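Notebook p. 47: complex prediction with EPU.
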Amino acid sequence: MAILEYLSLKPHNTFGIDVCTHYFTRVQSKQDMIHLITDEFQYYNKYLIIGGGSNILLCNDFDGLVILNEIEGIELVKEDEDAVWIKSYSGTKWHDLVLYCVNNNYGGIENLSLIPGTVGAAPMQNIGAYGVELKDTFDSLEAIHLISAESKIFKKDVCQFGYRESIFKNTEKGNYFIYSVTLKLSKKPKVNSTYGDIQKILDEKNISVPTIKDISDAVIEIRQSKLPDPKELGNAGSFFKNPEVEKSIAEKIQQDFPSMPKYDLPNGKIKIPAAWLIEQCGWKGKQIGQTGNHAKQALLIVNYGNASGNEIWQHALNVQKSVESTFGILLEPEVNIIT
Ligand code: EPU
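Predicted complex, structure tokens below:
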């Protein structure tokens, strides 16, 4: 395993930030990762594991070892009459896994089409879109402890999945390398077309009995129409999480803004779209220097070319501050900020 020195991370983060790492290596097998932990980690003061680099903001040069996860593959591990259990290694591109499942008519993750990033990053933040979250099909994952190098299986019930949350962002943060993820998918898929524009697109195409391929195609169409391709315009998807607030707070805001969109949550709280809050504060489509909020989706912060990570982070803090002073709501970043 070669350890390279002084490499630009620009190709390895979807914001397209041109920072440099002191050391860089690629892992392509479990053995590579175990070797790194047991024989190499002692020589570096810190390390950062990167998959697709689609949910990070790199603010500065990295004075440590960056590990690029290239452990790829998809396997059918078990099946019965109704379901299949698909194991995918963590460096596999998430959308490749979705396409594999859609093409084999294994249902459950078609609404999660075209989400950038790798399979290993998916459980970290319980990725979700168009009415579906990873946890809905998640069975288990295998992770490697980053000190002992021992493997451990995490079943769904211990992963503490929530909205963009899991145990790997909380009590087990930084403790494990996710090696593989196993999903339980349906061989008799039921489609979920209730969210947003999916049904509208199906109607336009006169599709009355949609297949999971139809759903996947519709989601791809919606995403491509609103969300910029990071290859053309650097971004990391939604920059902030949608805040969940007490009912009384939502009602107070609604008195001044009767058109405020909101979703009732099972826990009695109210979810308000962060994109709406940001748009009300005048940030939608606003460019400041090399950064700004996207014109079609205010929740996306983009890199118009040569923004530095710190410039983007400073902009995000300004957006956060103005939403807080207007609405009294503190937006929490969804993207991992690496300072
Ligand atoms: N809205 C605005 N202004 C905008 C955009 C949206 O006011 O510029 C309002 C509209 O009322 C709209 C609502 O916000 O109905 C929700 O917008 P949208 O459906 O685009 O979804 P979102 O809540 O902004 C979330 C996820 C996305 C996911 C979409 C679709 C989070 C933080 N983001 O965005 O995930 O694709 O739903 O399900 O939950 C990501 O995590 O990177 C990501 C892109």
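Notes: The pocket of EPU is lined by residues 129-130, 196, 237-238, 241-242, 261, 273, 275-276, 279, 284, 297-299, 334 (CB under 6 Å). The chain is about 25% helix and 25% strand.
Next step: compare against the earlier run before touching the bench.
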